[in-house]
């Protein structure tokens, strides 16, 4: 085997391996999310999915670059393997940064209200199932950062006291 043929084989394998790493990384990311998903603290999902999505997106961009710069005779194969990876990475990169922002925004909003009130604030929920969640309620720890959650319709609002929330039209749970 000539030196040129051998180099061509190595470049061809490098392109296929890089694409395979991106696909394996995607499957590993979903497995990590499935293993570490905590249904009790939904706010933590933003941190988990943001970190996994950002990490995979950066790895995928590198894999696409390596795969597309390798000199392989099967360009159609490289393109076919890399187009889905590139499309998912393009969509996932901004989505993961938004998830990380939402995670930190929820914590910052809660800490700001604790400083303003001098104690943990109450959560007031509007819309269907409107109610007030007190710091002594069992669901409070799970929901206290959810005021910045874009997936909740009718985000909760902080109030220093339950009386303040009731004065603004939020009903106490009976």
The biggest beta sheet is recorded as: 3 strands, antiparallel
Show unreliable segments: none
Tell how many strands the DSSP assignment holds: 3
- Estimate what percentage of residues fall within beta strands: 5-15%
Order of helices and strands: HHHEEHEH
What is the helix content? 55-70%
Average predicted local confidence, pLDDT: 80
Alpha-carbon distance between the termini? Answer: 82 Å
Shape: rod-shaped
Reading side by side through the largest sheet, how are the strands ordered? 2-1-3
SS element count, helices: 5
Rounded to the nearest angstrom, the radius of gyration is 24 Å
Computed structural class: mainly alpha
Number of domains: 2
What are the salient characteristics of this protein?
single chain, 174 residues, mainly alpha, 2 domains, three-stranded antiparallel beta sheet, 66% helix, rod-shaped
Describe the structure.
The protein contains five helices and three strands. The protein is mainly alpha-helical. The protein folds into two domains: 3-106; 119-167, no CATH class. It has a three-stranded antiparallel beta sheet. Helix 1 packs parallel to helix 3 (75-117) and helix 2 (43-69) packs antiparallel against helix 3 (75-117). It is rod-shaped.
Set down the secondary structure blueprint.
Layout: H1 3-36, H2 43-69, H3 75-117, E1 122-125, E2 131-133, H4 140-143, E3 157-159, H5 162-167
Antiparallel strand pairs: 1-2, 1-3
């Amino acid at each position: 085997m000539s030196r040129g043929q051998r180099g061509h084989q190595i470049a061809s394998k490098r392109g296929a391996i890089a694409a395979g790493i991106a696909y394996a990384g995607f499957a590993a990311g979903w497995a990590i999310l499935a293993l570490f998903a905590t249904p009790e603290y939904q706010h933590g999902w933003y941190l988990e999915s943001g970190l996994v999505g950002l990490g995979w997106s950066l790895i995928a961009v590198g894999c696409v670059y390596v795969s597309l710069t390798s000199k392989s005779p099967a360009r159609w194969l490289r393109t076919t393997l890399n187009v889905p990876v590139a499309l998912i990475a393009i969509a996932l990169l901004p989505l993961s940064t938004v998830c990380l922002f939402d995670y930190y925004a929820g914590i910052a909003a809660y800490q700001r209200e604790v400083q303003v009130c001098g104690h943990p604030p109450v959560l007031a929920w509007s819309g269907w199932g409107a109610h007030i969640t007190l710091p002594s309620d069992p669901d409070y720890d799970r929901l206290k950062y959810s005021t910045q959650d874009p997936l909740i319709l009718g985000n909760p609002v902080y109030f220093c006291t339950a009386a303040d929330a009731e004065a603004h039209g939020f009903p106490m749970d009976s």
